[in-house]
Request: fold
Amino acid sequence: MGVHAEHGRVVSGWRDRRLIDRLGIDAPIILAPMAGAIDDALAIAVARGGGLGSIPCALLTPDAARDQVARMRAAVRAPVNLNFFCHVNPPRGDDGTWRAALQPYYTEYGVGAPATPPPPRRPFDDAMCALVEDVRPEMASFHFGLPADALLNRVRATGTLVTAAATSVAEARWLAERGVDAVIAQGWEAGGHSGRFLPADPASYMGTFALVPQVADAIDVPVIAAGGIADARGIAAALLLGASAVQIGTAYLTCPESLIGPLHREMLGSEAAEATVFTNVFTGRPARGIANRLVREQGPISPDAPPFPYASDALAELKRADPADFGSLWAGQAARLARAEGAEPLTRRLAREALALLGG
Reply:
């Protein structure tokens, strides 16, 4: 299991090579697909560092996603993961109760709810499936379950590796029974939206390092650990507990290639990042982030928030007026472990240090 540097890359014999060899990557590190916070620039940098770059598609049109894939493939010879949401958008209902709760803020800032709501987060559909068939990513990952069988069969026919997030052992079994190639075991420490899709008491959320070994014992496909992993210690621990790879998000938000603004970057390095919370006030679905005024005064969980993804409609003008108090500052529980460095050297360093801890 020797390790040596080759043109700045970590070359080694990781113990579990199922995903590494299938994807053709140097290290079992996957960039978490954080919609709105990253694009192909960060995916390219992670790929250059030997990990798997991801492009989140939930906020993109198929053409925009196609453009990002094209830029990535022009920049680096490396695999790519395309990530999709699998929710079902309910009909838009009456959000009057939610707007009434927000009215004092509208008055304070001299704004109102937008007359035309912004486009909602896009679920995986025929157009996005056609994108997969066209660009043939090496991996397609899904959040909030899996797409309909007809769409999923079309994805499988491209030869791409299919994976999806599970927040419980029951969800992992459900995914494995439906033939996924790998399962992302997402602990409750993870930043952004929880991928939960089977009914369960919110109090039953599991931490990553309790979830990973139980999922690894319960299913026969590789497990990708996600949530609360931001340094080499977390990577090594996850692999020792049975994961074949790790998915890292918040640690990459501090990289210069991410899209987040100065305020978000500052907050990630502050003591406020030590007390992230699950909240539904931004989208209508539980997601972990740094608490701000909206979270403290209307949440963290508000019964008035419309169902996902419509809670964000009434917030658009407030977010524009004061992003600090009304914008989502997604972050996982390990945010304070992040270092501000380029994504390429970060990926290499994490791999090198994790191998050292593992005795590689």
